[in-house]
Amino acid sequence: MEYKHFSHEHNLSIYQVPHGQHLKCYGCDKFCDKTIYACWQCNFFLHEHCGNATRYIKHPFHSSHYLILSPYPTYPSNCFVCNACGTNGTRFSYCCALCEVDLHVNCAFLPPKVTHKAHPHELVLNHSSQTGGQNQVCKMCRRSLDSNHWSYECPVCANYGVHTLCATSEIKMGLYQMDDGLETEPSNPSAPMTQPAAPTAQQGQGPSDGQVQVELTPLEALAILMGLSNANPHV
């Protein structure tokens, strides 16, 4: 069974990663486990959730424009700084080229609430940190907490904030849905959108119903952004 992903020239096959084998995902640059998409000719691998990430989203952090999934950074430096976690990225990102907004795939789909053994209360994701600022530190790692980036905060304990990476260290990354308005399809039904690749009779079905994303050129991505903007005069 083979699938086509927009970021790679060859078809991808489904592979079950055995324990102890170390393969890195091209989408998020983290180690793979369980079911992945693989091109052994190029040693190209994608987590199931990275391969199935939708081609564009409207995120509550940047609701004025859709964020388009790019397989590589859009800057001459060949890297980007994630607006969510503040770390550099060189692989997939959800980006708005107009506003220079960039999110790692995993950061774009962070869970809205998490629990962690280091704190007795549920922690809530905030896109604008209320606790970060000068001399503020993450309550887990004790490093500086930047108010320019996202954090998880406790609604019960005053000034309890932690880095997103610290708060999610015990959970499996995936395509979590936000409670506050993450859209993965345009609200205007006439606006263009990219459909998942339909597997052929020879391909059959794979993880998540085979929803590997089809190829989209930069010009097509720009056309989508322009079409979505024109569909909403306030964008």
From TrEMBL:
Segments carrying the region annotation (Disordered) are: 180-211
Residues covered by the DC1 domain: 60-108, 118-167
InterPro entries hit by this protein: C1-like_sf, DC1
What are the UniProt keywords, alphabetically? Repeat
Low complexity biased stretches: 191-206
Protein name listed in UniProt? DC1 domain-containing protein
Keyword Repeat in annotation: yes
**UniProt source species:** Tagetes erecta (African marigold)
